[in-house]
Structures are given as C-alpha cells and as structure tokens.
C-alpha cells in the first residue's frame, strides 16, 4: 500500500518516464532562459510533411469527423495500415487484424494487458525502452531482463533467452531497430530468435516503430516474416511518430490475430474510445503516401549520427558503438564513473550514470538520459534527432566537461 493510502499500490509503483522527465526538465530550464541542449527525447526536429498536415486540415472541415468513430479505428486507415505492412514488411494481414491506438505507447500497454495474466513472465532484451517494464507490470506481468552489453553489440542471443526462460514465460518482447541502443538484428538472427520462440510456444510482441530508420545499407527484418513458424502468436506494434515526424499526432497501431485484436479493441472501447479522427486521417495520408520525407530526414540523421559518435569516442573513458538504426547513441561511460569532476560546489565523483547525467545537466546544461532508465547503470543515451547546430554545441560542452575528469 502507498504511504498515505490515497494512491493505489498498482499506480504508485509505476516509475515516471525517465526520458520524458529529462525532456521536461530541459524544456523548463530553456523556458527560464537557460541555454540547455536537450539530447533526451526521441523526437525528430522536422515538421510533419505538408501533405499530411493538409489532409488533417481537410478532415477537420468535414462534419463526419466531428463525431465518434469505431473504437478500433477508421476502416479506411486500417485498410491502409494492412497495405503498408505488406509493402514494408512483406507481412500479409487483414484490416480486421489492425487496431489503431493513441500512439505507440497505448499499443504497447494494450498488447501486454490482452495477453498477460498475473505472474506471466515477459523476456525483455536489455537495454530496453523505459515504458516496456512498466506496461508489463501494470498488466500484471513480470518483466525478466536479458542483458546484452556493448561487447555483443547490444544484441541478445538465443542462448541468453533460453537461460532466462521458465515455465512461466509467455511472451518475448523483440525490438529492432532498438531504442535506446540503435542496434539492428541481422536477418539470420531475427529468424533464429523467432524459431526459438515458436519452438517453445511463446508469443512474440515486436515493436517496429523504427523500421524505416536504418543506416549503412543495413536492412530491417520483421520477425513476423523471418519466422513464419510463429503463426498467429506474433503481435506487431508500429506507428507514424518516428517515420513521419508525427510524435504529437498520437497515432499508433497493433496487428495481431483476430481474437487478440477483438479483445484489445474491447479494452480500448472502455479506455479511450476512438483515436482523434483528424489525426487518423493525417496518418492515412502518411502510411499511404511516399517515403520521400523519411528519406530526407534519414540523410540528416545519418550525418548527425556520425558526428555524435565521433565526438563521444574522442572523450577518454567513453566508448560508443556506431548505431545502425533509430536515432540514438548509447554511450558506455563506465570508464568515467568514480573519476573527479569539477562541480558548482567543488569536486565531485559520480558513482552512477544517473549521478553523472545530473552533474552534466547542472554544470554544463546538457540533458542526457542515464542508463538506469533502460536497465543497468553505466551508460548514457543521447538522441541525435535535434538540429545540427544544437548537436555541435552540446557535444562541444560534453567534450570539454568530461575531458576534465581526473582519475
């Protein structure tokens, strides 16, 4: 029970989203006139493409979109999502297998809520996006972390998954490209993991929201098509936020077997009802339109990716592999912990990445997310989805400050 009894134990136990907390603090400091550089939130700095905005404006003028619509999504959008999934993943689904949600987070929660009973275990490759374990716990499940460090490219192996599997394991969470590490699983490893899950009768929930953000010719591989052995025990999560710079429009979706979608739609009908019709029509324009906008953004992300990783690796005590996907660099800063840094009130020796991140924000006004938000301490996640000038300024501050560390 919570200390006052006013808040339920279930809700009181949920940790605040660390990435949003860092972003909020950075924005508050900026609003107060501080020259903060925010590497916290995974949010493209580009505006939503004009043709998508125009579709929304047009929809807003149509009285039929001023009314309730089906809780599971507009039929025309569900059809377009099914067509887009076949186009991009080679995965054929019926529109009846699609549920349109209020952003990707709602799809994440509803998937776990629909599949998990109390005590069911979910294998969570770690580092993980901060929301996954909280959504699993909220649904009554038990997250089981399977850690893969930089020495294995942040990619978990079948052997590690098998070692973590118990009789209570029901779901494998699979994310490629990864937030927070930017790691992308090669096709053969995706297939191997999918076959292993199928052999043991596990469900696979796969988050594919970064599917279009891979670099250096590295292909995206959907586990749904790489491992057909999974049959209908796979749930695909996706959305328009990252690909089309639409984080604020709040449109995501889940794709699953008809019985799973029917159950999740029942949940959504009580939880939130339909997603905003205007946002759904914007999403329809996005998923049925060309990918030229994301291709343009990718060129900028690629440039920033290289600049950020080079700057991080120039700092003594920092090691950062080159991410192959998404728009994050995941820096190993264990070599900096315990060193002496100049603080505002004298020398300090941060012992954790959380302490180091707080020191960086307080001293040089650069916001980064500590590894504790995604699993073990000792790492920092930095988003390179911000402008080139801010990125260069922020990296220069980090290089100068972290370069002062004394062993």
Task: Give a written overview of the molecule.
With 407 residues, the chain is α/β, with parallel strands linked by helices. It has 14 helices and 14 strands. The chain has a seven-stranded mixed beta sheet with strand order 2-8-7-6-5-3-4, with helices on both faces. A three-stranded antiparallel beta sheet has the order 9-14-13. It has a two-stranded parallel ribbon with strand order 1-12. Helix 6 (131-138) links the parallel strand 3 and strand 4 (142-147). Helix 3 packs antiparallel against helix 11, helix 4 (75-89) packs parallel to helix 11 (277-288) and helix 5 crosses helix 6. The longest helix is centred in the C-terminal third of the chain and has 22 residues, at 292-313. It is globular and about 60 Å long. The N and C termini lie far apart (44 Å).
Radius of gyration: 21 Å
Count of DSSP helices? 14
What characteristic shape results from the CA principal axes?
globular
Cα(first) to Cα(last) distance is: 44 Å
The proportion of residues forming helix, as a percent range, comes to 40-55%
Poorly predicted regions are none
Q: Assembly state here?
A: single chain
> pLDDT average, as an integer?
94
Instruction: Give a quick account of the main beta sheet: strands, pairing sense, barrel closure.
Output: 7 strands, mixed
Strand order of the largest sheet: 2-8-7-6-5-3-4
Instruction: Quote the beta fraction.
Output: 5-15%
Say how many strands there are: 14
Which structural class do you get from the secondary structure elements?
Answer: alpha/beta
Helix/strand order: HHEHHEHEHEHEHEHEEHHHEEEHEEEH
């Amino acid at each position: 029970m919570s200390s006052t009894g006013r808040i339920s134990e279930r809700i009181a136990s949920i940790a605040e989203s660390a990435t949003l907390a860092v972003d909020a603090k950075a924005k508050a400091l900026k609003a107060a006139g501080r020259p903060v550089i925010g590497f916290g939130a995974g949010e493209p700095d580009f505006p939503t493409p004009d043709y998508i905005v125009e579709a929304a404006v047009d929809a807003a003028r149509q009285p039929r979109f001023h009314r309730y619509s089906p809780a599971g999504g507009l039929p025309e959008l569900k059809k377009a999502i099914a067509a887009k999934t076949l186009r991009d993943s080679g995965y054929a689904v019926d529109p009846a297998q699609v549920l349109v949600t209020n952003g990707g987070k709602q799809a994440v929660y509803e998937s776990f809520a629909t599949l998990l009973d109390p005590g069911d275990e979910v294998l969570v490759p770690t580092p993980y996006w901060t929301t996954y374990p909280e959504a699993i716990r909220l649904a009554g499940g038990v997250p089981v972390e399977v850690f893969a460090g930089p020495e294995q490219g942040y990619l978990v192996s079948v052997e590690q998954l098998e070692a973590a599997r118990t009789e209570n394991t029901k779901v494998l969470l699979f994310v490629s490209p990864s937030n927070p590490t930017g790691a992308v699983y090669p096709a053969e490893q995706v297939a191997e993991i999918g076959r292993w899950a199928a052999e043991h009768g596990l469900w696979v929930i796969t988050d594919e929201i970064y599917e279009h953000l891979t670099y250096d010719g590295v292909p995206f591989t959907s586990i749904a098509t790489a491992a057909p052995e999974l049959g209908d025990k796979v749930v695909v999560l996706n959305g328009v936020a990252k690909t089309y710079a639409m984080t604020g429009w709040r449109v995501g979706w889940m794709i699953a077997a008809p019985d799973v979608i029917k159950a999740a739609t029942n949940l959504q009908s009580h939880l939130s009802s339909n997603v905003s019709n205007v946002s759904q029509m914007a999403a329809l324009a996005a998923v049925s339109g060309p990918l030229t906008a994301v291709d343009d953004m990718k060129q900028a992300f690629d440039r920033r990716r290289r600049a950020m990783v080079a700057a991080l690796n120039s700092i003594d005590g920092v090691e950062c592999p080159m991410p192959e996907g998404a728009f994050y660099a995941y820096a190993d800063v264990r070599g900096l912990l315990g060193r002496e840094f100049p603080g505002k009130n004298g020398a300090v020796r941060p012992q954790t990445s959380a302490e180091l991140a707080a020191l960086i924000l307080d001293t040089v006004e650069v916001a980064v997310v500590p590894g504790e938000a995604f699993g073990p301490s000792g790492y920092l996640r930095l988003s390179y989805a911000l402008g080139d000038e801010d990125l260069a300024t922020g990296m220069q501050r980090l290089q100068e400050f972290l370069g002062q560390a004394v062993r």
